[in-house]
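Amino acids appear as letters; backbone shape is given numerically. Here is one record.
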Amino acid sequence: MLEELLNFGSIVIADIVLSGDNALIIGMVAASLAPELRRRAIIFGMVIAALMRIGFALIATNLLDIPGLLLLGSLLLFWVCWRLYGEIRSNIDAEAALALATADSATAGYTGAPRRSLGSALIAIGVADVSMSIDNVLAVAAIARGNEELLIFGLGLAILLMAFAATLIMKLLSRFPWVSWLGLAVLVYVAGEMFHRGIFDPGTGILAYAQGTGAT
């Protein structure tokens, strides 16, 4: 019971601290549009992010069972931690909060005649969101360890946070940086534990796989 609660808490923290990139990209792209297009860009941008997370989750849950890929996933997650460390130091959450606030204001950002189509803006959001979706799904899948309830909870929470609380979360993280540092600590632990399983796990660890191959 305690372990399950810790896993739920870890997923909540991971979802919160990994939402900064999404909020910044969507806010910046939306702010570059004419005011009448911004709301649709934000909504459609959130939908794209949600669909990508669902798609990558379906792939990740199957691939992480293949020997060697769990280890690769841990290395990717360590890279996510390093990138997050840089973002915390550069206060990206404050930039994201400002970008979303600008996009939500009819008098801020670009206010001239439309010079960029909604379609081109969504393509920019989609391309930028590929790596961010992988980051989020990888972290949640690593914590869930094949538990479908945890995985669904983590993805659902990430989507809800992006859709309804992105600006609030960015302001929260900007005001209380320790939350971001706590999230980074959680992700480093998850990556380390994933790295250990990627080597020694009897089912998916490369060491066990190598021993099994040698025995045959």
User: Anything to note?
Assistant: The chain has a mean pLDDT of 76.
